[in-house]
Specification:
CATH architecture: 4-Layer Sandwich
Shape: globular
Bound molecules: D-malate, manganese (II) ion, zinc ion
Helix content: 10-25%
Strand order of the largest sheet: 6-5-4-3-2-1-14
Strand content: 25-35%
Largest sheet: 7 strands, mixed
Number of domains: 1
CATH topology: Metallo-beta-lactamase, Chain A
Structural class: alpha/beta
CATH class: Alpha Beta
Order of helices and strands: EHEEHEHEHHEEEEEHEHHEEE
Length: about 280
């Protein structure tokens, strides 16, 4: 299985277009940009699945040679898009896929029902919405299977408040031929026993690296809400749990522009745009 990191930043990216903070200014100077969170996964090198579709998707696809179209004029190796939230930073890129002959989307019923882009896209392409039923493995092309676990209930700001449901999921993608598996959990409000069991035995995991510590939003941006209240366990909060899984390669993605690890040294592996994992 191959996993390509398409983007490693939280909503807005780094630098964010209207942000003059220290981290964004430094990224603007150095040119070390991070696009918004998402990966592409393949089992056989031919059939690829996107995990999330960020607003930066078009440029992410153009810079990943393996995702080029062909040999037919409208052939594409992209077989579908798996969505882990209904947030704008994970879904607005779907609009950029409207030229597809057909668009297969995989998400929980909650996310599929909420996404305003799906009814819009139906006017442009043949949208096939597949419900990811929590805990039930679903077979994908190229020998992959995917399983979802609900990790959070944060409702996107555009959706009606307090609507309970399977809003935020982690995915475990397995290559049935090699037995290798990859866990994607870039929005993880807490490390629960359920998540610990979901992750156990994976070969690699891309985790929530939005914030470095609990006090980062307060110190860097004067915010009163904590990372956990924003649906993001900080990296420091995940560290003790990592030690229980010595066989897993952990990477952190979805970095916010306040996170000092986005542009400086970090005590963990921070995912980079364009990075590829071979599992
Ligand atoms: C999040 O990751 O918490 C959301 O994407 C925040 C947002 O952009 O509204
Ligand atoms: Mn986000
Ligand atoms: Zn900034």
């Amino acid at each position: 299985m191959r996993v390509r990191v398409l983007g490693s930043a939280a909503g807005g990216g780094i630098p964010q277009w209207n942000c003059a903070c220290t981290g964004c200014a430094a990224a603007r100077r150095s040119g070390a940009h991070r696009t918004q969170d998402g990966v592409a996964v393949t089992g056989d090198g031919t059939a690829w699945y996107l995990v999330n579709a960020s607003p930066d998707l078009r440029l992410q696809l153009l810079s990943a040679g393996d995702l080029d179209p062909g040999p037919g004029r409208r052939d594409t190796p992209i077989r579908g898009v798996l969505l882990t939230t209904a947030e704008i930073d994970h879904t607005a890129g779907l609009l950029g896929l409207r030229e597809a002959a057909r668009l297969d989307l995989y998400a929980t019923g909650t996310v599929l029902a909420a996404l305003p882009f799906i009814p819009m896209l139906r006017h442009y392409t043949d949208v096939r919405a597949h419900e990811l039923r929590v805990g039930e493995p679903l077979a994908l092309d190229g020998g992959l299977t995917v399983r979802a676990s609900v990790v959070g209930s944060k409702v996107p700001r555009y959706a009606p408040r307090d609507e309970p449901g399977a809003w935020v999921t982690a995915l475990r993608i397995a290559d049935e031929r090699t037995g290798r598996s990859f866990v994607y959990a870039t929005c993880l409000p807490a490390w629960t026993d359920t998540f610990d069991a979901f992750l156990a035995g994976a070969d690699a995991a891309l985790l929530d690296g939005t914030f470095s510590t609990d006090d980062e939003p307060a110190l860097a941006a004067g915010l009163t809400r904590t990372p956990r209240e924003m649906g993001h366990l900080p990296i420091a909060g995940a560290l003790p749990a990592l030690r229980r899984h010595p066989g897993v390669r952990f990477l952190f993605g979805h970095l916010n522009n306040t996170n000092p690890y986005a542009g400086g040294p970090a005590p963990v592996e921070v995912a980079r745009d364009g990075q590829e994992l071979l599992l």
